[in-house]
Amino acid sequence: MTAISCISLVCPVGYTPASAIAAMRARISVFEELPYRDNGGQPIRGAVVDAILPETRGRSRLQALARFAVEHIDEKIAALLPWGEMPFLLCTRDSGMPGARINGILSGLAVPGGRPLVGSRTFQIAYGQISAFVAIEQARKLLNERNVEACLIMAIDSLIDARSLSWLDSRMRLKTSEVTDGLIPGEAACILVVSKRPIVDGSLRLQGLGLAVETATASNEEPFRADGLSAALKAALGEAGVQMHEVAFRLSDVGGESYAFEELVLAQMRNMRKTRPEQPVWHAADCMGDCGSAAGLIQFAWAEEAFKRGYAPGDLAALHGSSMAFGGRAAAVVSA
């Protein structure tokens, strides 16, 4: 089996997994005007982590997010983990997307108790929104090695960056005064533990995982049929040995673009073989915008909290990841 648990989550609506997920469940949003303007000269709206000063930008902002995430790891949970022995996987934005440099952002970070955060084996997963799923697949392979009991996955991303915002705005993907069909920028840092057995009470169980590529992206004119996400979801369901109608609820990284909402519906329709009265979809972006590579880990954190606190509408959840501009697609099926 593969167990997954979120041990830290710092985002615009909370600084711990419990508080952040409670805010998302209550649909509390924290959008505000940013100190950036779009190409039309109008202020850009987004969601920021208030604990980080507005003048902290670029690489320093990513460092601050990483530091807060590590500082907010619960000491009792930290004491359960084999720090220094776990392979470390860092999820970052797509390599083709402009943004702050990430080299050295984890330098000197130590978990509660003074032990180093990063072990001797480190990997960078630069696939943006699907990085979490790619990292978990890599972690599963590492767990098959005899000397590896657990892996640490961390995602840090911020679209609150002049380079990222300009890139999105120039492609008409940013929600502005002139473009209503766009995403709202956000930021977050999240840490998961993936292990052979549950280390933390209430951990998720990974039932299936699927990865695929979509050739019809938001940047070209190819016919769009959601082939990539449909294939990823089919693979995850197949590994889990369940049908789409058996999934009780879904989580998604959709950040506001209608293209992404259409894809989510098409992927469901192409995998559904029997009708189901209700299959709700939860979107963290409703509360804090698009958090880039952290969006995938946030889905796992929300599913874990929902099962743990008893408000999940069923036993199975399907998670979805889509890198709109670069074609990566992913899906996972999890249970309590």
Give the key terms.
12 strands; alpha/beta; 2 domains; 336 residues; two-stranded antiparallel sheet; globular; Peroxisomal Thiolase, Chain A, domain 1; ten-stranded mixed β-sheet
What would you say this structure looks like, in words?
The protein is of the alpha/beta class and 336 residues long. The protein folds into 2 domains: 3-195, Peroxisomal Thiolase, Chain A, domain 1; 204-335, 3-Layer(aba) Sandwich (Peroxisomal Thiolase, Chain A, domain 1). Helix content is 28%, strand content 23%. It has 9 helices and 12 strands. The strands form 2 sheets. It has a 10-stranded mixed beta sheet, with helices on both faces. The chain has a two-stranded antiparallel ribbon with strand order 2-3. Strand 2 (32-37) and strand 3 (43-46) form a beta hairpin. The radius of gyration is 19 Å and the shape is globular. The protein starts with a strand and ends with a strand. The mean pLDDT is 94.
